[in-house]
Specification:
With 332 residues, this protein is of the alpha/beta class. The protein has 13 helices and 13 strands. Strands 9-8-7-10-11-12-13 form a seven-stranded parallel beta sheet. A six-stranded mixed beta sheet has the order 1-3-2-4-5-6. The two termini are 35 Å apart. The structure holds 1,4-dihydronicotinamide adenine dinucleotide and 2-oxo-3-(phosphonooxy)propanoic acid. It comes from Plantactinospora soyae.
């Protein structure tokens, strides 16, 4: 579909869709929007202002992926009433600017939890057993082996023990791993009740063979040179959350020194900044595996995210209350 293709009647009120993966799903969501008298307009997922400006002018609702929503975007959308984040993280949205303009922000908590938890285990196993590197060797004619670890023998740390962190913890417990968790918003009892040992962030590197990140982005990196200096040799780090949780140059140095044995991620800084990632350097190819932010991309999660986003968008446009509002300070 081209950037400005319209679905529904010309003119009238329009809904801008910039999520990469929004589709009708099992409920004909595009039909529901059209039935509500809304024209659906597609825009670029990276939210380039020059391309979006003409589309934002008439938009009353916006279904957005992970692209930035800044004061400049909002001021280009004077009729905007509701920004429905199709997904969970609101780190790229200027929530204060939205609140100041009376724009209601919603998201789809829980809709992609199982999808991201599944991918996280896949990334962890890929790094732990060297699956992508093994595949490359076979394709180049070599049946050279590598030695990994069994997941059940490991102590695994989880940073951010929310919906996805706990879903990953449940899967890890099923494998027989020992699960430690750090979450500054949860008390120790809540963490224990969800099956993990509560620990401080600083304890994790020395105690874990693998650590998985599930905290919101938008702040300073939690994984930096100091934190990495405390790691056991051979740490595996998994990041299916946000790139800015990790100081990437510091991690590249730790991978080269061998302190960190592997990094498996669904995101990199370059996802939003463009350019070249230090983690994609040729000499790190066998230690780093990256997927293109596809954690939420399952048939099931896309269906749930779309249904929740459209239901809340229509509720707000009807003058009602959304089920999943995001308030200022609702993120990290
Ligand atoms: N790869 C992908 O496609 C996806 C990535 N995500 C990312 O995963 C993150 C987590 O998603 P959910 O589990 O659904 O959110 P959630 O809100 O249920 O869990 C986040 C947890 O992190 C905790 N937290 C906040 N600040 C923290 C800090 N400084 N250190 C450690 N923990 C902290 C919170 O208390 C909360 O329990 C999202 O914010 C998003 O960035 C989410 C969905 C899809
Ligand atoms: O839900 C999130 O925070 C995600 O990262 C998923 O984003 P997406 O819908 O795949 O652009």
């Amino acid at each position: 579909m081209s950037v400005t293709e319209r679905i529904g009647p010309a003119g009238g009120r329009s809904v801008l869709v910039t999520s990469r993966s929004f589709s009708s799903g099992s409920r004909d969501l595009l039909g529901e929007l059209a039935e509500a008298g809304l024209t659906v307009v597609r825009g670029p997922a990276d939210h380039r202002l020059d391309a979006l400006r003409p589309l934002l002018a008439g938009t009353v609702g916006w279904i957005a992926g992970t692209g930035p929503v800044t004061e400049a975007h909002l001021s280009a959308a004077p009729r905007l009433t509701v920004l429905a984040r199709y997904g969970v993280g609101v780190d790229a949205v200027d929530l204060e600017a939205a609140a100041a303009r009376g724009v209601v922000v919603t998201n789809t908590p829980g809709a992609n939890t199982e999808a991201v938890a599944d991918l996280t285990i896949g990334l962890l196993l890929a790094a732990l057993r060297g699956i992508p590197a093994g595949d490359r060797r076979v394709r180049s004619g070599s049946w050279t082996i590598s030695r990994g670890r069994e997941l059940g023998a490991l102590t695994v740390g989880i940073v951010g023990f929310g919906r996805i962190g706990r879903a990953v913890g449940r899967r890890l417990s099923g494998f027989g791993a020992t699960v430690l968790a750090y979450d500054p918003m949860l008390d120790a009892e809540a963490i224990r009740a969800a099956g993990a040992e509560p620990v401080e962030l600083a304890e994790l590197p020395a105690r874990c063979t693998a650590i998985s990140l599930h905290a919101p982005g938008g702040g300073r990196p939690l994984v930096d040179a100091d934190w990495l200096a405390g790691a056991r040799d051979g740490l595996i780090l998994v990041n299916s959350a946000r790139a800015d949780l990790v100081d990437e140059p510091a991690l590249a140095a730790a991978l080269r020194s061998g302190r960190v044995a592997g990094y498996a991620a669904d995101t990199l800084d370059t996802e939003s900044t463009g350019g070249t990632s230090p983690l994609l350097a040729e000499d790190l190819a066998d230690k780093v595996v990256v997927t293109p932010h596809l954690g939420a991309q399952t048939v099931e999660a896309i269906d749930r995210m779309g249904s929740l986003a459209v239901a809340d968008l229509l509720a707000v446009l009807d003058g009602g209350t959304p089920t999943h509002p995001v308030r200022v300070g609702g993120s990290r």
